[in-house]
Design goal:
Elements (H helix, E strand, L loop, with lengths): L5 H7 L2 E4 L2 E4 L11 H13 L8 E8 L9 E10 L3 E10 L2 E11 L23 H7 L6 H7 L5 E5 L2 H6 L7 E8 L7 H11 L4 H7 L10 E12 L9 E11 L2 E10 L4 E13 L9
Antiparallel strand pairs: 1-2, 2-4, 3-6, 3-9, 4-5, 5-6, 7-8, 8-10, 9-12, 10-11, 11-12
């Protein structure tokens, strides 16, 4: 990727092949495993293509069934479960090689007015007062595997600023399983709320499980840790722009049985709460196979 958001926008622009079936493709210059945020965002993009524009998505619930291959296209099959007077409901199954790797359901709501309230954002330094992710990669390179150093130093269209980077990059205990991250897309984006919604869905999967591991002084980058998203839920509360700074407040209130619960709240710079996220993930210590002696 370059600093331009064009390649990421193309990634989320799934191809309509007819009959409420769509095809999504991954970036050709990344790793083998399909990023969970890509499946979430592409499935949501496919479902949004089957609903009226005056009914934005307000919730999405998804399960990761099998690991996807980023080198292969993904077929998204949308089922129109209901078209009601105020709500539309959709289901989407993502398939590779004839197997379902991901499934999601989403609800869309006709725009209405009503009561309003939202939680206050946590205190956080301004993003301009924090180092960039590439600066942090250089600062903490001794703690990062080579592949991760390449990723955080990548010329990405995402600008990300981490509050308390020592906990995020070194595994120093702190924050009680909480972390704060500012992010935004570099460069202006189209004035299309579905585009911003799909991008937020894409980014909502990033760094969440690290909040659970940070509570134990471990890192998502640790090769001794096996980590994988199991399910993912998103609620969209108000309109927003992903090319403006957004604060992602993440925490992990519980972990047990090799699974961890994580959740997040996303705020605009002026303090509006625009989205909520919940995810359960697998986190386990890898075990090496026993050495067989002749």
């Amino acid at each position: 990727m370059t600093r331009s958001p064009d390649q990421l926008l193309a990634l989320l622009n799934v191809e309509d092949i007819g009959g409420d079936h769509f095809v999504g493709r991954g970036p050709i210059d990344r790793g083998r495993h399909l990023f969970g945020g890509q499946a979430i965002a592409q499935a949501l993009s496919a479902m949004m293509r089957t609903t009226p524009p005056d009914r934005p998505v307000h919730s999405l619930h998804a399960y990761f069934v099998l690991a996807g291959d980023a080198r292969e296209p993904v077929t998204y099959e949308v089922a129109r479960l209901r078209d009601g007077g105020s709500f539309n409901t959709r289901r989407c199954d993502a398939q590779q090689n004839g197997e379902i790797i991901f499934t999601a359901a989403a609800s869309f709501h006709k725009l209405e007015t009503g009561f309003e309230h939202f939680a206050a954002p946590p205190d956080a330094p301004a993003p301009e007062d924090l180092p960039s992710i590439s600066d942090l990669a250089e600062r903490f390179q001794a703690f990062l595997p080579g592949a991760i150093r390449n990723w955080v130093g990548f010329d990405s269209p995402l600008d990300m600023r981490v509050v308390a980077p020592e906990t995020f990059f070194t595994g120093v205990r702190g924050g009680g399983g909480r972390q704060l991250i500012w992010f935004r897309m570099c460069g202006p984006l189209p004035d299309s709320q579905p585009v911003h919604t799909a991008l937020l869905a894409y980014f909502s999967d990033m760094t969440l499980l690290n909040a659970a591991l940070a509570a134990h002084g471990r890192l998502i980058f640790d090769p001794a840790i096996q980590a994988a998203s199991l399910d993912h839920a998103l609620w969209f509360h108000q309109p927003f722009r992903v090319d403006d700074w957004l604060l992602y407040a993440q925490e992990s209130p519980e972990a047990a049985g090799a699974r961890a619960l994580t959740r997040g709240q996303i705020f605009t710079r002026d303090g509006r709460m625009v989205a909520s996220v919940t995810q359960e993930g697998l986190i386990r210590l890898r075990t090496r196979p026993a050495t067989v002696k002749a």
